[in-house]
Amino acid sequence: MTQNSYKKPEIAVRKILHSLGLRFRIHCSDLPGKPDIVLKRFNTVIMLNGCFWHKHSGCPRSNVPKSNCSYWSDKLEKNVERDKGTQLALTELGWRVIIVWECELKDIEKLKDRLKGEFNVRN
Q1: 10-residue averages of pLDDT along the chain (123 residues)
Q2: How many CB atoms lie within 10 A of CB 47?
């Protein structure tokens, strides 16, 4: 997988936000976890999580591989624990954290409606 393909979900969400008239910064290194998208006006960050890498509960993409199970279980659990710590740190700093899961990109219109609701956009 190329580096560019890792960016596709992030670019899709950025296009949605832009189409809603929302402006943002990306990868703000001065915030815990270097959030993918930062909307300072709304004091909100958006974290884009891959279903496999962040163990999206109930998602078929979040299954642990059958080979080397203990390695993958430990690795993925550490990712989840790091995510919790990052979310807590951001919340303690007064930021609202929105998680967008990779599988949500299967229905762009539904995701767009969700983000409209999160930011009370009327268009």
Answers
A1: 63 96 96 97 97 95 92 96 98 98 96 97 81
A2: 19
**DSSP character at residue 122:** -
pTM here?
Answer: 0.90
Q: 24: helix, coil or strand?
A: coil
The dihedral built from the CA positions of residue 54, 109, 58 and 64, taken in this order, carries a sign that is negative
What proportions of the chain, in percent to the nearest 5, are helix, strand and coil? 50, 15, 35
How many CB atoms neighbour CB 53 within 10 A? 15
In this structure, what are the phi and psi dihedrals at residue 61, rounded to the nearest 5 degrees? Answer: -75, -10
In the chain, where the domains are located: 3-119
54 touches 83 (CB < 8 A): yes
Two structure tokens written together for 68? 């080397």
Topology given in CATH for the domain delimited by 3-119: Endonuclease; Chain A (3.40.960)
